[in-house]
Amino acid sequence: MTDEGAAPGMLRPGGRTARVRTAVLRAAEDALIECGFDGVDLAEIARRAEVGKTTVYRRWRTPQVLVADLLVDMAEQSVPRTETGSLDGDLRANARLVVRTLTDERQGVLFKAVIAAATTDQRTAEALHRFYATRIDEWSPCVDQAVERGEAPEGTDASEVVRAVSAPLYYRFLVSGDPLNETVADESAHAAACATRAGAYVRRSAR
Fold first, then answer.
1. Class of the CATH domain delimited by 15-63
2. What SS3 state is found at 65?
3. Residue 77 pLDDT more than 90?
4. Can you give the pTM of this predicted structure?
5. What's domain 78-206's superfamily in CATH?
């Protein structure tokens, strides 16, 4: 994103401005974890971050803009993909990372708060969609490389494969409440790998 036309709070400055952004985003994260989206009050965020209220209001304007910027930062700070040299290994690494994130005492609560906020606020929903799109783009090359190695059919939609790995995990996290652990992660990755090799995710145009 360039500075010109960028949303308030989403510039990428250095120096003191960067330190202020880091402090404010950390405070917003704490507020989400403790109180949910309703706890993201800009004046309270300024107090937590120990910065001036004017600075926070000028740069972020609304809680929705602040949460959107937090999601941008989360995407930027996320762990990069693991390349093991095999489709099964890469998908397993992806699934285990998702499970570690969702079961983390801090990150799991944060994700639930952000997802809940996204159900009622369009700006937050759009930011959440961008976050997941960023993560899918990060991991999709693993599938493309599997196609090149002959482990998956030509025309496989890499993005759909990555979604297939994490979808059952998020279902457990948000809906069923069933356990999330490495065994579940490995099962999800194995199922996605088998379906991929069988051609389940080959684009219609390639069939």
1. mainly alpha
2. helix
3. no
4. 0.83
5. Tetracycline Repressor, domain 2 (1.10.357.10)
